Amino acid sequence: SIPIAKQLASIKVLGKGSDLEKAFATAALVYNNSADPEGKLSKAETKSLLQTQFRGFIQGQENKPKYQEIISALDEESENKLDFEDFMILLVSLTLMSDLLQEIKNVKTTK
User: Fold this and answer.
1) Which own/partner pairs from 66-75 qualify as long-range (CB within 8 Å, at least 24 positions apart)?
2) In this structure, are residues 60 and 100 in contact, taking their beta carbons and an 8 Å threshold?
3) Which of 31, 41, 87, 93 could be disulfide-bonded to 45 (CB atoms 3.0-4.6 Å)?
4) What is the pLDDT of residues 47-73, one digit of tens each?
């Protein structure tokens, strides 16, 4: 497997891309590297990906009802798979409820 940083470097337009563009490209690459040939993730794969790649945002959220609702939906036995759009909505939802978001908001932007 080719490291994400190397995959990003191979996308010429991102060489001068913004931090935000690179962040979204990274999310897309992480998703694509885990997706099946149809470009989708099973719920189990999604949960595993969150636990390995999004740990900082989900850590400590276990007792929040919305988090439990999201994880319960991923635990359900179902053939439903997530496409990239659903995956990004899930990431945004988890980010908005995370304690880490507040910490990010408190980061000083000036010296």
Assistant:
1) 66/93, 66/97, 67/94, 67/97, 70/94, 71/47, 73/43, 74/43, 74/44, 74/46, 74/47, 75/43, 75/47
2) no
3) 41
4) 999 999 999 999 999 899 989 988 888
